[in-house]
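I need you to check the entry underneath: sequence plus fold tokens. Let me know what the token row says about the fold.

>
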Amino acid sequence: MNNYKNKKNVIAINLEEQPEIRHDIDQTLNFGSFEELIKLHGLNPKMNQILFIDEAQESDLLGSYVRFMKEKWPLTQCILTGSSMTRLFKPDQRVPVG
């Protein structure tokens, strides 16, 4: 993640180091409110950017938004990493395909 932090077109978030962002993500009601939150951290879906979220599995809701990231942000490359990514998609969440 350190390689990404100083790049101009990269929004780098670590959900273990930034638990307040994890909390805010888990308080969102839908993808639209998640998008507004991420915009506050620098995302502009109309620009070529990279959204890099480390320890993504720490969020209870982030996995449910993965499908919409791909569909609604075609210019944004989303990279989700973590030490236990099997926890990203909860049992009641639809796992994106394709």
Notes: Residues 56 and 94 are 16 Å apart (CA to CA). The longest strand covers residues 49-54. The mean pLDDT is 86.
